[in-house]
Structure formats: structure tokens, C-alpha cells
């Protein structure tokens, strides 16, 4: 299928890289556009035969599936400008969580779906979060699912849980990277180990954990139990982490939910104003 992307920022580029690397789509079957055209041109240099167009309307003319990879505030004006340019058999895919599928359907006269990718999709792993619109046919669902399965593990998520699911799968790599960097910094500040060696050891450890989990050799809880010896050093370290945690992740999810609601309210104001005209 011909695939188009409107927006080639971090997430748009991630999707193109994953599509090409997984061979879910050939570069010559992908069309892109970006407000700063040079970004799209640079992506085309990376993936030869990728097609670059000057406007979103041109991308719609050359694509069966269109990923909308723009910031939430840009969605409403973009969708209004494209309202008459879709054809019924196209699939429009939003990659942003604050805008609901229902709101997308109010301005897009074709089949709609939301797909939240993750940076780990670049390694052909991790999840993509999928919320189908009401008009998606079973055939189109299966086609899209097959494409996403080439570079991820697609999971269907309802509107109620889209934010927390995104926190875990899409924001999670940043959260974990932060914690791992803090662990490295703590080791360097407390001992004579070099940052280079501490980083290497930590990186290889994380890679190994990923393989153990992927191969289902252990669960997260089993990993903790296997490494922890009663009365041993690991237990001492875990006690420190337990004390320091003090509800940190509960606070984290409360704050991300708060920001999510603010973004939703901003989107609602634009979409509701349009609907009430």
C-alpha cells in the first residue's frame, strides 16, 4: 500500500525508518511532506526514492494510508484545510493522544485510526497503541495490523487508557533512561569507577534484561527474586530504592494525566467551536 506522512519530525522520521527497516514499505511507496521542507529532503537522502511533496494535499493524492505526525495544536487547522481532499477508502492515522478518534472523525471523511508509536519501534520491537475509528472495516483493520506487526507489537487500547498506555510504552524509554543515568552517576560519584565503564556495564545489563524478557525466561518479578539473595547486598540496595521511591511513580502518572487533560481541553476548545458553527 502507498503510505504518506504529513510531518517528518522525530516521530514521523521514526515511522519512516521503522517502515523501511522492517520492509513493511519500500521508500518508493512512501510520500512525505513537512513545514520545513529541508527536513523531508534530508530524510529522502537517507532513504533513496522516498517521495517529497510540498503540501499535505499532494501527499493525500499519492497515499492510501496517511500518518498525521504533527503537534496537537496543528491538527485542527490542518484537518480543516484537508477536509475535501480525502477519498473514502483512505486510512487517516493520528499519532497524538490528546485528540480523540471521535474528534478526528468529525473532520476526516474517511476511515480513521490512532496509532501511538514508540522509539523502540526503530529496533523492530516494542508496542504500538491502536484505537480504531467506528468506520474502520475488518479488512482495513487487518491490513493496518499487518503493517504495524512488521516493526512492533500492536495492542488495541481504548480511549480511557490511552494516556497511561502511552506513558508506559512511549514515554517509558525516557523515564527508564533517566533512572539508568542516575544509577550510573551514583556509581561514579560514590566509587572510583569511570563513567565510561559504568555506562558500558549498565547498557549491556539492560540489553541482557531485554533478551531475558523477550524470550520469556523470566518475568520482571522473577528477575528481582533470582538476583536477590536473602541477607545479601542486592536486598540492601532494594531497601534503599524502596525508601527513596516514596510514591514517585504514582506522582509521575498523576502529573502526566494532569498535562494530558490540559492538552485535551485545548483540543476540545478548537473542535467544539468548529462543531458549534
Automatic annotation (TrEMBL):
It is an enzyme of class 1 (oxidoreductase). Keywords: Amino-acid biosynthesis, Cytoplasm, NADP, Oxidoreductase, Proline biosynthesis. SUPFAM superfamilies: 6-phosphogluconate dehydrogenase C-terminal domain-like, NAD(P)-binding Rossmann-fold domains. Pathway: Amino-acid biosynthesis; L-proline biosynthesis; L-proline from L-glutamate 5-semialdehyde: step 1/1. InterPro entries: 6-PGluconate_DH-like_C_sf, NAD(P)-bd_dom_sf, P5C_Rdtase_cat_N, P5CR-like_CS, P5CR_dimer, Pyrroline-COOH_reductase. It catalyses: L-proline + NADP(+) = (S)-1-pyrroline-5-carboxylate + NADPH + 2 H(+); L-proline + NAD(+) = (S)-1-pyrroline-5-carboxylate + NADH + 2 H(+). Coiled coil: none annotated. It is found in: Cytoplasm. It comes from the Bacteria. Its main location: cytoplasm. Residues 2-97 form the Pyrroline-5-carboxylate reductase catalytic N-terminal domain. Residues 159-262 form the Pyrroline-5-carboxylate reductase dimerisation domain. Its EC number is 1.5.1.2. Belongs to the pyrroline-5-carboxylate reductase family. Catalyzes the reduction of 1-pyrroline-5-carboxylate (PCA) to L-proline. HAMAP family: P5C_reductase. This is Pyrroline-5-carboxylate reductase.
Amino acid at each position: 500500500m502507498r503510505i504518506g506522512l504529513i510531518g517528518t519530525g522525530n516521530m514521523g522520521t521514526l515511522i519512516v525508518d521503522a517502515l523501511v527497516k522492517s520492509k513493511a514499505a519500500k521508500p518508493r511507496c512512501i510520500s512525505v511532506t513537512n513545514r520545513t521542507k529541508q527536513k523531508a529532503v534530508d530524510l529522502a537522502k537517507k532513504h533513496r526514492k522516498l517521495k517529497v511533496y510540498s503540501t499535505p494535499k499532494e501527499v493525500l493524492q499519492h497515499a492510501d494510508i496517511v500518518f498525521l505526525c504533527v503537534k496537537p495544536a496543528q491538527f485542527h487547522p490542518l484537518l480543516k484545510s484537508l477536509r475535501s481532499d480525502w477519498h473514502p477508502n483512505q486510512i487517516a492515522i493520528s499519532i497524538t493522544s490528546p485528540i480523540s478518534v471521535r474528534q478526528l472523525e468529525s473532520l476526516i471523511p474517511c476511515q480513521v485510526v490512532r496509532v501511538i508509536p514508540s522509539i523502540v519501534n526503530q529496533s523492530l520491537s516494542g508496542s504500538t497503541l491502536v484505537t480504531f475509528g467506528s468506520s474502520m472495516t475488518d479488512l482495513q483493520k487487518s491490513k493496518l495490523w499487518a503493517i504495524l506487526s512488521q516493526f512492533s507489537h500492536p495492542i488495541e487500547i481504548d480511549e480511557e487508557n490511552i494516556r497511561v498506555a502511552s506513558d508506559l510504552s512511549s514515554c517509558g524509554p525516557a523515564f527508564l533512561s533517566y533512572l539508568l543515568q542516575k544509577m550510573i552517576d551514583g556509581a561514579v560519584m560514590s566509587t572510583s569507577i569511570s563513567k565510561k565503564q559504568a555506562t558500558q556495564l549498565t547498557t549491556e545489563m539492560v540489553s541482557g534484561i531485554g533478551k531475558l524478557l523477550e524470550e520469556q525466561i523470566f518475568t520482571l518479578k522473577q528477575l528481582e527474586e533470582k538476583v536477590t539473595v536473602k541477607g545479601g547486598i542486592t536486598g540492601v540496595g532494594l531497601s534503599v530504592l524502596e525508601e527513596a521511591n516514596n510514591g514517585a511513580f504514582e506522582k509521575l502518572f498523576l502529573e502526566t494525566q494532569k498535562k494530558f487533560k490540559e492538552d485535551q481541553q485545548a483540543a476540545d476548545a478548537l473542535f467544539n467551536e468548529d462543531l458549534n458553527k
